[in-house]
Structure formats: structure tokens, C-alpha cells
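Raw record, unedited: Nucleoside triphosphate/diphosphate phosphatase
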Amino acid sequence: MRIPTEGETIQIHSYKHNGFIHRIWDETTVLKGTKSLVIGGNDRTIVTESDGRTWVTREPAICYFHTDHWFNIIGMIREDGIYYYCNLGSPFVYDSEALKYIDYDLDIKVFPDMTYTLLDEDEYEYHRKQMGYPDVIDHILKRNVDNLVRWIRQRKGPFSPDFIDIWYERYLTYRS
């Protein structure tokens, strides 16, 4: 697996378990890239859905991907604070085309006061049956929901008080 380099602009590709593309983020600037971790930043990037529709993100975001965790975290910087959107999905891989992962439907939305909501449980159950998620994937994902909630409560990783601010400042150096 190639390692993305700091300052490089990459795409992020999200797939579904059946191998079909789910969503593509057109441009994310790599702020840190190692064989196990990618931290990126983007702002007003074009997102293409599987049906071809496009939209543009509304605010700056810092993205956190790790090969040891079945989730990724997006910290969105808004006027009233940092909101997090956490996708339960496979660990990422990176090739010459993009950073890639499988999205497994479950999401956790975290508000600036660090309260959170688990989202899309119905969608997860529907796709689990439709695409035949193996029991081992189901167990891994449920364990990672618990791990993610623990990170939120402990203010660990991207949820630590200064994490998003520090990486956003780094992102701004690439925009000037």
C-alpha cells in the first residue's frame, strides 16, 4: 500500500459491502500520512453520490482514518462549534487512485457538547440482510460502536479538545 504524502491532494472513495461505489469526496489535502493513519482536511469539496448526483460540503472538515479501527471520523468546523460525523466502516486502504473504505451504514453524530446519537440502525439491518454481511463483520462493527463511544466519552483521538483546531491550522497553511 502506497502512503499518501503530506500536502498531497487525494480523493476519498466510500464503497458498500457489495463492492459498488457509495460516495466520492473529490479533494482532501493530506495533513499526515503513515502506513496506518491518514489525517486530511477539506472545505467546500465536491461529493459525488452513487447515482451521480453531486453536492458541495458546507464547512471545513478534518478527516481521521486509521487501519486499526473499523470507523473513521470527520470533524466539521461550524460557527457554533465542532460537530463530528463518525462512519462505521472497514479500515482504509490507499492506492494510486484514492483512500478507500467500505461504509457499513451505522453512523454516530457527535454535537459540540459531546452528546451523541447513533444513526441509521434500520439501514444497517436492511443492508446486512440484503448484502449478507457475515456475522463476524456484525460483531466487529458492534464492538467498534462501543469503542467509538468510549473515545467520545474519554475525549480520545479526534475528540480531544485541541485535535481539530491543531489540524485545521495545519490545513490552512496549505490553502494560502
